[in-house]
């Protein structure tokens, strides 16, 4: 698996990790147990030092975790603090602990060097709790490499083809290239659709539609979009419009694609309208369309994975739209190289 | 997988490939997309040059095929002729094309050197459209090597044991050996059953029953059979009888076993009576018995495959009935050797 | 797979092998066909010498077995005695035969050197037919290594945690260590629980509860237990009590964990009360609790197996309770070493 380790990965929705309940999952093929006590999130390797039973089948005892196979007791740093039937605890009886935080409605886990775990690196995603937005919440599991889903999100030209039936994106959308700008943690994509139906709320009304998204390591998408009166694209010289002047379909979406294991990924997403541009009904309609579209992606990407798996030496021929993919792959390759040049992480 | 490439493989029933619909399948573990425009059949590698999405999830546009991931457009030779968002097409943007034809009710695909794709090598199977015969049509998928099904068809002594309940073949059928003759593309098996119930239409009537089948590379069976008045075997000196003098149960069957991938095979078959010896009801009865028998084969061969898979160095002890299998294996080995001696096919 | 071969493995319940019916199974990843004629049990490699079809899909013909693919006939020693279509039988046409016996309600198969197959090595398990005991009978299949189930049975400290809800074992059970004694074929575990509720029949009554079990190669558990009047542990100096003085819940259990293949095991068990201490209702209650408890084990061990499988170099940190496991592993390692020092078994 070819992903950076010094990065914050989305492990779970915050609202799916209640106080004192254990959750087992894998990130980068490493089993991890998550739990929360007194608001603080803990993440340990999900593997008892004794006989490798999963700690996530254990139970919370205050801020401690009890393995429910033979009763080893762990503190939240991963140190064993009690073993039934013996008084002495070997100091090496400890499991790896991962930095973990609850921010913007997601639990984020840092997979690399704990000393480099800087919370300011967590991107400003739109939280489902953000009072400015009405958002629905979805999770999709994939039997495919996370990287293939990243690639999908780094090239929206697929909207014309994969999502012709859901988002209704016209063919000519794929004929123009977005503006792509490098960011410290990824890249920004910007695009005007001129004289197009306002997709969600006013399909009968022609607008100039603007969309902007950042795609950030290790696989986070943050996007907003909105309809503007005809002529706005030209008036803004095809640059970024003033958000406050949007007239319809102002919405946002946050998405995170986490590599769980080889050919196993979990896709977290939320989307919906700005409160001043929509209501619960519009939110539900946007979520339904998005769910349908993401199932279209899953069908395509899972089939693509199957073809790749039976291709002895898979190679690709990039198109002009692949610029964002190439930039992102290069950034990831650079990060991985930097990590291996420092002290070993694994 | 150990099969010749310079051979016509059955990929599909003709009547299951409607005009302008894409069909994805694999032969020799290679993904292939089939479609038909204006009566002509096209077969391309089912793998977009761009990012390896399956073309079979695409759409027909006239005689062209559009990949529905990012919109690459292919002509029927496999050349990319349009890429959304760019004007220049790299000449190397093309996928492999396979010779493909629609003959005798089947779509045949040539997996080897296209220059050697000679349609006259396609055997004269009984088409389900042949007006002389009434035939039913069946398809069975196997989780087993095609070669194990070939071996099954090359040794009919199994009828006495596997098909005692369906075809009702008596034990002593397996005590006598068929006449086996080498053909350019395979071998011919001939057999008289003396004084035996006419199997399908007149079980109360004792006849001399004749059956003849050819088994041809890469895995095609063509067979006819019929009942003759008692004494006919002797009168014909146990040689081939005059077809027109048959008195009952004159029928035919065509069968093709295609290696889809490792331990994955597709078995196409048709069978039924000659129109002068049967009607729709007899055809249906023959098909029902054949379906039952082929499920018996599948149970046995799938279990055989499982045993082979857990046997470290599987070896066999051939019996006198294995002569056909040995001859066919030798022919296949010779063809594969000849192919590797010529220019590389893969 | 790391198990001794010179050992009797439980292959089946006796009452599940009726006269003249073939049963196919695997032990140590070797396919075996079992059948019984005139009371004698036969065990052969389940793989026809001809084309490796499973003999377990065949039919019994007296004490012979007919392969139902092409009709090869075997005697009970594994020698082919008839081949359809030919008179001569190659002497090498024989399959491996395994010593097999029906003792104590189980069919036992010896997987190693037949000359060393000594029936006196079969442990004195409690047969479900033993008139002194009322026992229920259960079978559970595991997708896990048999060794992990052996380890589970060699360390009862898990009862406090895995079986808190079924057997109701209190936490402090795991704080004391059993007495462990080496036996020629394994080891004996003995334990007093002082002043504890009599678990099955009289939970309202406090007793001193004694349990003793032997765990024997290749994976057999034989156990009895019973409640004694308060003070008995002390009075017996925490040694073995006089069985006849038990006052409640005298019961037994026999268990066998057979490695079928990699990560595939079959767990045979029986349990119930002594006739002088219980009735059918108590037997059923004990079986229900045991079934529930063994499902708890299966959940934990299957999850443990999954963690081990995704751990690159799994290591364990043994606790004081692991003494029995370590002793048993050493005994098994010694047996395997002895076998490989003698003449080859495979």
If you had to describe this structure to a student in words, what would you say it looks like?
Three copies of one chain form a homotrimer. Helices cover 19% and strands 33% of the residues of chain A. A seven-stranded antiparallel sheet of chain A has the order 11-17-16-15-14-13-12, covered by helices on one side. The longest helix of chain A has 30 residues, at 280-309. The radius of gyration of chain A is 22 Å and the shape is elongated. Chain A has helices at 146-153, 159-162, 232-235, 280-309, 323-341, and strands spanning 8-13, 23-27, 30-37, 40-45, 59-61, 64-66, 73-74, 80-82, 100-103, 106-110, 136-142, 179-183, 186-197, 206-216, 220-228, 248-261, 264-273. The first copy, chain A, has 346 residues and is α+β, with helices and mostly antiparallel strands. Chains in contact: A-B, A-C, B-C. The A-B interface holds A 151, 155, 157-158, 160-162, 171, 174-177, 299-300, 303-304, 306-308, 310-311, 314, 316-321 and B 26, 29-31, 46-47, 49-54, 57, 66-72, 83-86, 90, 92-93, 261.
